[in-house]
Amino acid sequence: MRIGVLTGGGDCPGLNAVLRAIVRRADTGLDHTVIGFRYGWRGLIEGATVSLDRAAVRGTLPRGGTILGSSRTNPYKTEGGVERVLRTLQREAIDALIAIGGEDTLGVARKLGAEGVRAVGVPKTIDNDLSATEVTFGFDTAVQTAVDAIDRLHTTAESHDRVMVVEVMGRHAGWVALHSGLAGGANAILIPERSFDVGALCDRLEARHARGENASIVVVAEGATPVEGTMTLLSGEIDEFGHVRLGGIGGRVADEIRARTGFDTRTTILGHVLRGGTPTAFDRILASRFGVEAADAAHDGDFATMVALQCDRIVRVPIEAGVGGLKLVDPERYALAEVFLG
Ligand code: F6P
């Protein structure tokens, strides 16, 4: 069997661990050949391939990013894109395609299934917003990276009696903000799922100062939005999946805090720092488990599926279960955080 693999969308730590696991499973357990496609779906449109054998993945377990490269190319938004993908799969005699990505990348894999593409999905995103899987690899590393930064920001905030606003990634879901804010001891956590009232936020900060607690940490997800009409917002460019380029809400919140309270306030945007670097042990293991299961699913001819973590077991679910709707922070989870906020 010839198994094709691609990594699409935003990169994250753990991608190379998935590739390594697919190659090691295919090479030793299943005796198949693995062909990598460069830069996500762009590699299938352009026919850009690289052989993935043991030598190619040697030493990549701890390495962040993806040795294949990634992109946000959408074949359905490219002139003749789908036909070119199908031609590449035929020319390369690909028997099964493993797509590693988030809702956009796996959404394309699902649609291509109707064109006869035999695909298996591996869920990937630091945002942890894919349904059907309890967690995606990349998320644990992103949260730990954010917590390490927040721990550092506490000491400098306390030295200067400052409010530190920390902007983290999270386009539609606030899981990174929620978990890093909880673990980092934040005093406020703003997430996309709950519009925030900046006046109420400032009241909370002033109450802290009235108690002599003059240093505060406010964690803001880049996709957080203010209650209608309470703040003006910036807007960025749109990608091929219709997502607006985010970033900057943290600075706007800091401006409002400074203007309304007079407190000395600074902003730190963690941004792509959360997407880089070496994966944690948890992510290395989860990514390896996903990779082995994806190779087995391809071998079994179990297509239009996505591997997932459920009750600590790696299972296969219909790919639409993973991409049908985003997994957002539910009110109960946020209610737990509120015990520690303020
Ligand atoms: O989808 C994961 C993610 O990291 C989001 O949290 C973030 O908004 C986006 O990717 C950034 O995308 P890019 O790296 O293409 O700017």
Structural topology:
Layout: E1 2-7, H1 15-30, E2 33-37, H2 41-46, E3 49-51, H3 54-57, H4 81-91, E4 96-101, H5 103-113, E5 119-123, H6 139-160, E6 163-168, H7 175-184, E7 188-190, H8 198-210, E8 216-221, H9 249-261, E9 265-269, H10 281-300, E10 305-310, E11 313-318, H11 319-323, H12 331-338
Parallel strand pairs: 1-2, 1-4, 4-5, 5-10, 6-8, 6-9, 7-8
Antiparallel strand pairs: 2-3, 10-11
Helix pairs in contact: 1-10, 6-7, 8-9
Short description:
The chain is built from twelve helices and eleven strands. By secondary structure, the chain is an alpha/beta fold.
Order of strands side by side in the largest beta sheet? 3-2-1-4-5-10-11
Unreliable runs: none
Number of helices: 12
Q: What's the number of domains?
A: 2
Q: Roughly what percent helix?
A: 40-55%
Number of DSSP E strands? 11
CATH topology of the largest domain: Rossmann fold
The geometry reads as: elongated
Using only CA atoms, what is the Rg?
Answer: 21 Å
**What ligands does this structure carry?**
6-O-phosphono-beta-D-fructofuranose
SSE string, helices as H and strands as E: EHEHEHHEHEHEHEHEHEHEEHH
Instruction: Look at the structure and give the mean pLDDT.
Output: 95
Report the span from N to C terminus: 57 Å
